[in-house]
Each structure stands twice: as structure tokens, then as C-alpha cells.
Amino acid sequence: MKHLLVGLVLMAAFGSGAARAQSMVIATGVDPAFAAFYVANQAGIFKKNGLNVDLKTGPSGSTMASLVIGNQAQAAMSSEQGGIQNFNRSSDVVVVSEGTQMVGFHGLVARGHKTLDELKGKKIGVAKGTGGEAFWLAMLQNKGLKATDFQVVQVEAPEMIAALERGDIVGFAAWEPWLAKARRAVPNTVLVIDDVGIMSPRAFVYMNKPWVLKNGAAAETFLKSLMEASDIITKQPKEAAAYVAKQLNLDLDLTEELMPKVPSKFQLTQDSIKALQFAEGVLKEGGRLVKPVDYGKFIYPDLLKKLRPEAVSYEVPKS
Known about the structure:
- The protein has 2 domains: 2-101 and 201-313, D-Maltodextrin-Binding Protein, domain 2 (3-Layer(aba) Sandwich); 106-194, D-Maltodextrin-Binding Protein, domain 2, CATH 3.40.190.
- Helix 2 (35-42) packs across helix 11.
- The strands form 2 sheets. Strands 2-1-3-10-4-11-12 form a 7-stranded mixed β-sheet, with helices on both faces. A 5-stranded mixed β-sheet has the order 7-6-8-5-9, with helices on both faces.
- The protein contains 16 helices and 12 strands.
- By secondary structure, it is an alpha/beta fold.
- It has helices at 2-20, 35-42, 45-48, 61-65, 80-89, 116-119, 131-143, 157-166, 178-185, 209-214, 216-235, 237-248, 252-258, 270-285, 295-298, 302-307, and strands spanning 22-28, 51-57, 75-79, 93-101, 106-111, 123-126, 151-154, 171-175, 189-194, 202-208, 264-269, 312-313.
- The N and C termini lie far apart (70 Å).
């Protein structure tokens, strides 16, 4: 009888713990810029902190961020333009923190061509609504070129290497690891230009605001988990790279090569705002901006302020 009572008590304890676990769906793309999501998942940080997280990945962070609309996913990690375009579709999508800075992470690769002049009139693959498109548009502006100087072909990032091999395109604008993979897989493929001196992109964490307001404690725990993952990325880079490589089924050596290009920083600063505004300007110039961004509604700093108040320092841009 005594053993039965002990068993019932243990079952009740475990049962109540399971009942308290908050379920979440989160979504992102498949590249090291979103390492905080992968590390928190692979290292068991979400589980340790009482979250039952279903991590969904897709062709790009921008594509997956659309799941935050309608609360199909409660959080996503994506580039600036992915967040901007989805916020302009639904104000439920809000920025809660910057998560990653990207340095030399975007670029243009080509097969059999080494300069932009050589590529004029040729077919270039670009995935609309992604960081690759933002880089492409910013690069054109920076170099005084026009989109009509090239034949732009819509190609999702995971399909770009195959399209390059088949000869459907001669080059593509994208981000890592696709740039490095293309140079490794397709003979005579080179990096024509990267984003250094053209743009300073970031990846941000976006959440469904109505869900956050109803599940404040869980939302805080989620962001806290990402910040714990960020500490591992910063302080234990080899361990972090191993987690990322496992999540993405990516070569470990390549992952270790790419991780320094995506330092993890959870903050909301004036530079964060500038990155968002730059992306907004690029989208507007390229005719891709649905409407001007209302930053007072788009940025939701409350969670980060509670967890790391010193990391929040910015002025809301005037409309």
C-alpha cells in the first residue's frame, strides 16, 4: 500500500509537470543565421525551461515567418524584409528582439562568370521576399545598375544549386550556406560579390502579439531560452556549431567556417532600427513595399526589457 501511494504521488508530480509544459510552434529557415533556434532545440534548453517546442523549418526564414500570421506559429526568426512584409499583412506580427548580425553572409555566385558586367543579360536566380532579394536590390542600387540589366528568375534557395548545375541560371543571389555549397558542388562557380559595404543585415525574432499577450510567462521563457542559446553560440562556438550542423544536417567543417559570420546578439538598439529601415527602403525602391512601416506598432520591446533592460535602447522612428 505504501509503495502504491508513493507511485501515485510520483505519477501526479510528473503529470502536473507535463500539464504545465507550454506547447509552441516556431518556424525559420535552414541556415546558420538562425542558430539560436537550433541550439535552443538541440541543446534541450526549451525542454529544460518547460517548453514543448515544435521547430518547423522551410526554404527561407521569410517564407516561414508568414506562419506567425494567424498564429500557425507563435514565433519565427527571419530577415528584416520577411518581418516587414508579414507585419504589413498583419499587425499581429511583431519584432521582439534582434537575434543575429550577418557579416559577408549574402552574396552573388556565378558559374563561368567573374564580374557583374559579364552577367548582364544573363539569368540570375533570386528568391522574392528573402534576404537574398534584399541583397540583390541593395547591390543594384549600390553599383548603379538596373534590374532590367539582367534576366531575374524566381528560384527558392534550396533549388538554386540544381538550377545552376542544369544551366537554367548562370548565377544566383542568396545567403549562406547556399553560396558556399554552390562553390563546392558546381565546377567553375565563384563568388562575384558579397554584402560587405553594401548592407549590414540582421535576423530578428518575430512573435504573434495576441499569443504573447495571452501567454506572457511562456513568451518570456521562450525569449530567455534563446538568450541562453546565444550565450552558448558566443562562449562555446564549437559546441554551438555541432548543434547547428546536426539540426541542418550540414557538414561540420562548413558550419564552423560560417558561424563567425553570424554573431548572435539579442538586443534592440538604434542599429537594429537602422537595419529595419534600410530593408524597408530597399523594398520601397524595388517596388516591393506594400505600405510604410509603423515602427511604433511593429516593435514590441516589452519581453526583452523584462529580461535584459540594458539591451533595449532606441528611439521609435517618426512616421
